[in-house]
Amino acid sequence: MARTHQLSSGGWATALDGMRPGMRWLGDGRLQINTYDYPPRDISGAELVFIPATTRRGWVASDPRQRRYAVIYPCSGLLARPRTGATPEALARLLGPVRARILTALGTPKSTTQLVALTGYGLGSVGGHLRVLLDARLVSRRRSGRSVLYYRTGTGDDLVRAQSQSDT
Question: Alpha helix (H) ranges present in 1-111?
């Protein structure tokens, strides 16, 4: 989603910037994938896939016989950034540490899978806590493509904001 946003707001040059060292959009349908002194390769009409991975470095894969190429690159965006901000202590005492952490993490809409990745809790645990937060009307959900995104309601926002202010 981070790359899609970059592509829609700044074009290919912005989306490819920082994807991997030496990679840049040259314009006119040309892409430089590294700084090695190899002759250019024309892959017009071939399949080129960009694959985000949870690695520190990316690489390039190819199957020239099938005319398939892939650029594997390190993830960027919300889930790739280190967790910042602590769960307010009073909120953790009120809701329990897991529910408080999930509620706090929902400052922007997230899927269950994203919450599992952010919190480190199991899928069943996150799902159960989301059910309690839904029943309490502290969070709501909506479908976005194949995903269901959870987000704080106004009441959930007020609760997190009030507890964050009391901890400062």
Answer: 2-16, 89-95, 97-105
Class of domain 85-167: mainly alpha
| CA distances, 104 to each of 37, 65, 82, 85, 156 (Å) | 49, 49, 15, 9, 9
User: Can you read off the two tokens belonging to residue 47?
Assistant: 């399949």
Q: How far apart are CA 113 and CA 118, in angstroms?
A: 9
End-to-end alpha carbon distance in the chain: 33
Q: How confident is the model at residue 140 (pLDDT cuts 50, 70, 90)?
A: very high
Tokens of 1: 């989603």
Beta-carbon count within 10 A of 134 CB: 14
Does the pTM of the predicted model rise above 0.70?
Answer: no
Question: Where are the domains positioned within the chain?
Answer: 2-78, 85-167
